[in-house]
Amino acid sequence: MSVDYLNTITENASRLGMRIQESISEHTRDINLAQSNASYFDADDKTKNIRKQLDSSSDREKLDAMKRLIALISKGRNVSEYFAQVVKNVASQNLEIRKLVYIYVLRYAEQEPDLALLSINTFQKDLNDSNPFIRAMALRVLSGIRVPMVGNIVVLAIKKSAADFSPYVRKVAALAIPKCYELDESHLPSLIQTITTMLGDTSPLSIGSVAVAFEAVCPTRLDLIHQRYRRLCKLLVEVDEWGQIDLLNLLLRYTRTMLPRPIISSNGEEVDRDIEILLSSVEPLLQSRNPAVVLAVVRTFWYAGPPSAYGKIVRPLLRLLQFSKEVERVTLSYILVLARTEQALFAPHYVRFFLFSEDSRQIKAEKIKLLVYLINYENHQAIFRELIEYTEDANDEVVANCIQAIGKCAALVPESMQQCLAALTAMIKNNHDVVVSNAVLVLKHLVQTQLSQTSKIAGPSKSSINIIASLARKIDDIHHPQARACVIWLVGQYCSSDEATPGPAGLTEWAPDVLRKCAKGFALEDVLVKLQIITLAAKLLVLNPTDQTLILLNRYVFLLARYDSNYDVRDRARVLSSLLLGVAPSILASYDEIIPAEERGGVVLRNEQVKVVLFNGKANISVSDNTEHASNATIGSLGVITGKSALSDTVLPDWLEKGVESSLRDSPDDAPAAPVPSSMSSSAVKTKLGGPVILTPTIGSSSPASSSGNGRKWASNLDEFFNEAAQFEEGSSEEDDDGEEEEDEEEEGKGGTEEEEEEEEEEDGTENSDGSERDEEEQYPQTKEANEKGYQAFE
Amino acid sequence: MALDGIIILDNTGRPIIQSGFRSSTTAYPLLHIDAVNNALQKADRSADVDPVIYVAPYNSANPSACCHVEVGDMRFLCPISGDVDPLFAFAFLQTFIDILREYLGTVSAATLKDNFDIVYQLFEETLDAGGHPLTTYSNALRDIVIPPSLLNKLLNVTGTNFNSTINSGFGAGAAAGPFSSPLPWRKTGVRYNNNEIYFDVVEELRAIVNKNGLVTFSNVRGRIEANTKLSGTPDCSLNFTNSQVISDCALHPCVRFQRWNRDKILSFVPPDGRFTLMDYTYSPNPLPSQSQVMLAKNNVALPFVIKANIELEDSGGSFDVLLTSRYSTHALENVVAEMHLGQGAGGIRCSVSRGSGGGGFINAGGSRNLETGGASNGASWSFDSRRMVLRWEIPIVSPSSSWSLHGSFSTANRVPRPSHVIRVRFDISSHTYSALKVDQLKVVNAKESYKPYKGVRGRSSGDVEWRW
């Protein structure tokens, strides 16, 4: 029964739906609503109509044409041929059309300068529009038309807009300055004049762009900043995030050029008062949500602050690591630069640099480098364990980096040497080639360093010889050619021994055995390994020229090498066998009998001489750290990231010996707030707190006329705005101190009509039986819906 | 020195939309597109492409670099020339993407194509031709670039002059026009019949567990997302009962920094609509500590344990993984455990089951494509043969329950080389690790008085790397 009923309903509903759809599609056939914007994209390029549409009187047609043009631009078409038609619409009353026209004009003005000039009148007219948005847009297009002829007009327009009462227009004016300068450098004097005036601008909205203009047009005129310096510092917090970055970079440059370097002595630091002002006013910005702002502040602290202030930048930098993987990648490189000089800053936070398996290759590489920088006595155990776990990574490069890092650990923290060697020897048994070869390479390096260090004091240390011994015994398990070659070389180099062994005298007992094993499979070895086998054979023979077995082994190896298919091997064999002539002429006996000794000519070396040739003069291992050259890298510059130093064209100026006279920075408008830095910073607080300003009279209920009037007043007199703001804050901060007053104020704020409802937020949100809750539900029907979404009401 | 523009590529590497470039050569954007596509082609994993790519100079142009991020099925490129901090580019890209998201809902190649005129206008308004960001507060943007809506489309196509209010400037209409608000992030004249403000406390746990089952690193990052629908210019102050669990926070520009640092009260005039009020890090142990022992205490207790028994042999391996929830009150949702099996892996045979008793034994053949195992009590497994990742999904892990996955795989190489990591991701609703609790929110409005509805809810997620 109910099913039938339901069926009827659904049937009716669908029938109704169909009819509605029909009628809609009938009515909207004209408006082709169903056809979405994407169709502009995919439609075939029926460009014929565009011209006609642009000339039509209907806004709809025009808009359609403009959209099609923009879509064509998007596809990479050149649609400059429509310029004439488009320009006609520049004064369209429809803002949508106008915006698209602006976009178009900006793209093609350069190619059609004559036609662009036609439109200039309209823009000039727009500069006087009552709407700040229109004024700003006109100026943007005007300055974007790169036609030298309009230079003068643009300069005038900039000058006019620079004094506009809307800070947004002033901002656009400032941004137009560099473009104008680029177009025609002869306008420099008048542009500098405009910049000077604008530097006095107190609106936080536009000042960032003024900094941009300053850097682009007159970066050397830092003297213009003197009187504004303190005011700019105070303004920083309120500036919009992008402006903060530009302004901070300017202020940092100013500080480095004009202020004395902080002096660090045994009895504390001496920091110029004006640097302190800068640092105290930027410090809150370390809490910005914008990573670029945080970095700009970090730069300021790092390059202008005393070392005692460095601690403040650590956590914000670590926070950036969580922002996104791209930001993480960049920030890690910067931290690396910082950690190189101040490893103690980041060492306690080493866990933050542990690798995740899904990290990108660059991130992994940077993290491993960082961990090596941060290693110290306290954390070496933990870092070491981590590094060992990373050797199981699926990426060969990471594994290689890691094993090398383990080697560096041992060098940096001598206490970990034994552990390191143990780990590396264990890795040799690993069945991945990468692990084995890298482990052997690092091991060789370590053993060599250890031997070269200890040999100065006493003979080769027992432990490293033991390592070589164990390597030698595992020669059959080491398959990677490079690693094998490496082990064989080590064996040869350190095989001499004074102890009595069952084997040939003067040699360690394991050395001849390695040769025996290697000789057996000589033909199948890699070239690299063959070369080392011959060398090993020669070395062993020199140390013990009389042992018959060795001579036989040598003869066998050299014979094979002589007929090897690789000429490097043949050459090496030839060199070594001639070298050995004086040591053991008998090894060559088998095949050299035909040539009498006297006919051979040349010098025959004695045993000791051959020993010197073979064993000595090995270059000391040099730690090659290819990142070292970048030690003077500046954080916040592109060069650090790409590794191409050519990109870092902005080098921070070095401090002056003595800063310029501080009184230069005294300015009349600072006078009341100047005395002590601490009070300066707190006055910055005041303006900030006052900033958001409830004083805003332009809220809904007030009449439009009065609102516009007020907006005008405020915008035209910003000093007043800030004074009022400061006063407001003074008032409200008093209220904060006094709880009773605050309550009074709150009641006033609510019009005193409603009782405060005491309502505890429920832990689980399950029990809400409170009476007041129900009241609220009646009052606000949306409550229920909100609760369903899982929101809990709270006071 | 600036951002040169933005290029949006689709998943085949072809540009969909690009902003105007002021630079000298028309080849400039093409060079960057090429550089990115080449790098993508060379890399094994797309994640391995360096997000900052050096682009060699062409002709006399300066050397430049291309910063790029992946968003859904697209890639956003931001070429920079001169010595620009790449963070600047990434911060801007992020802001731009957030704006797009707010305008279009979902950001995908389809929605962008659908609203390309909006995107072009946004380019124009957010980035000045000289390469400096212009207007990025969405409240201000909404005044000048009208968000797409059905009504808008209708009015536009019918040619109605919809923007008369903007055109006529001051004095007309309720809104005073763009850029008339003294607070750049909030527009004036906002009116709501029902005043509401909602807060979402969202926390994300990241942790590494080493082979011995010890947590070596854990970090909980939280953020408070607000959605405000309040009339007028409300001045809010929000405080917490346990603000000491918060450390190292980042605040939206509307928050008074000094007030927070002094009193731990978030005092702000919110933008209208959605925004992120603050980011923070949860510190279980408020005292900053340096020593190892203290660091260990600073770790957050993980909501589950894994017992993994994985054995590798020649040309394959077998695994037996047991996941047990440690929470007694909250269920873990959308649990996904992933294991990279290394190059040449295949022939997966798996079974998933719940606890010791329940669950069927399902085997799936070793086809090379996406192998999918059956579901048992909602849990299922699949193998992505492109990424070589075995994926184990459990929709809901109820409190204290345990789940197991066991099976085997074979590899083409003699020595299998899986990454020795099980990566587990999960969500927990109405729960926060920090138990951060909002005490009260005061809303003061100078002009009109109303009592808004205030709601708060918590939500957390996790991403744990469990090594074996």
TrEMBL record, chain A:
- GO biological process, alphabetically ordered: intracellular protein transport; vesicle-mediated transport
Q: According to the UniProt entry, which residue ranges have a biased composition of type Low complexity? A: 670-684
User: What are the protein's UniProt keywords?
Assistant: Membrane, Protein transport, Transport
Write down a Pfam family by its short name: Adaptin_N
Q: Which residues form the Clathrin/coatomer adaptor adaptin-like N-terminal domain?
A: 48-580
- Compositional bias of kind Acidic residues: 731-767
Bilayer-crossing residues are: none
Residue span of region Disordered: 659-687, 695-714, 726-795
**InterPro entries given in the database record:** AP_beta, AP_complex_bsu_1_2_4, ARM-like, ARM-type_fold, Clathrin/coatomer_adapt-like_N
Has keyword DNA damage?
A: no
Q: Where in the cell is it found?
A: Endomembrane system
Annotated Gene Ontology cellular component terms: AP-3 adaptor complex; endomembrane system
Bias type Basic and acidic residues, positions: 659-668
Superkingdom as given in the UniProt entry: Eukaryota
**What does this protein do, in the record's words?**
Adaptins are components of the adaptor complexes which link clathrin to receptors in coated vesicles. Clathrin-associated protein complexes are believed to interact with the cytoplasmic tails of membrane proteins, leading to their selection and concentration.
Q: Which PANTHER family match?
A: ADAPTOR COMPLEX SUBUNIT BETA FAMILY MEMBER
Recorded family membership? Belongs to the adaptor complexes large subunit family.
Protein name listed in UniProt: AP complex subunit beta
**Which organism is the protein's source?**
Rhodocollybia butyracea
TrEMBL record, chain B:
Provide this UniProt record's keywords sorted from A to Z. Answer: Membrane, Protein transport, Transport
Pfam families reported for this sequence: Adap_comp_sub
The yes or no answer to whether the keyword Mitochondrion is present is no
Keyword Coiled coil tagged: no
- State the compartments where it is located: Endomembrane system
Q: List the record's Gene Ontology CC terms alphabetically.
A: clathrin adaptor complex; endomembrane system
Name the major location: membrane
Superkingdom of this entry's organism? Answer: Eukaryota
Looking at the record, the residues that make up the MHD domain are 194-468
Q: Which GO terms describe its biological process?
A: intracellular protein transport; vesicle-mediated transport
Give the UniProt family note.
Belongs to the adaptor complexes medium subunit family.
What is the name attached to this protein's record? Mu homology domain-containing protein
Q: Which organism is it from?
A: Rhodocollybia butyracea
